[in-house]
Write a structure and sequence with these properties.
Elements (H helix, E strand, L loop, with lengths): L7 H20 L3 H4 L10 H19 L17 H21 L6 E7 L5 E7 H25 L9 H5 L7
Helix pairs in contact: 1-4, 1-5, 3-4, 3-5
Length: 172
Amino acid sequence: MSGPRLDPLAQYAYLVAAREPIFDRLRGLTPEQYRQPFPFGLGTLRRTVHHLAGAEWFLIGQIAGGAAGEYPFGADAVPDAETLERRWRALEPQTRRVLETVDDWARPIEYVVTLPNRRRYRIRSTVFWVFVQFCYHEVHHRAQAMAMLRQLGASVETIDVLWFTGTPAEEP
């Protein structure tokens, strides 16, 4: 039995839409709250959202043949949530163009990742699985950011994929 195929552009559109409530809450935080330490995840909202934006730049860059240019999400280049949001939004058209031009989702990809502890790993995969990693990675770390926001009194609710792709209706 065959079901519908996943549409990468639709998947990406969901990720972009689900970022909106996060951006809305980040805009309302003080710089101290944005940098407040938490005992889980990447430790702060700032590090978490920088990591998400940087992962998009890096992973979609690998699909395109290699991340190009200077890393746009470094701590010095992106000192606050406003700058992060602006730079991350500027990345969206490039990501869409890359996804629109993929003609072989089974194409092999190989790249090297260096972790914060300086360990290096050679990754061998396919375009499809790198895209899947990008999507699930964002959902994973977005949940950490949502937990941090909740502890700061800035909860984010209703970002489930069906909320954005279905037609929410109140129970009769």
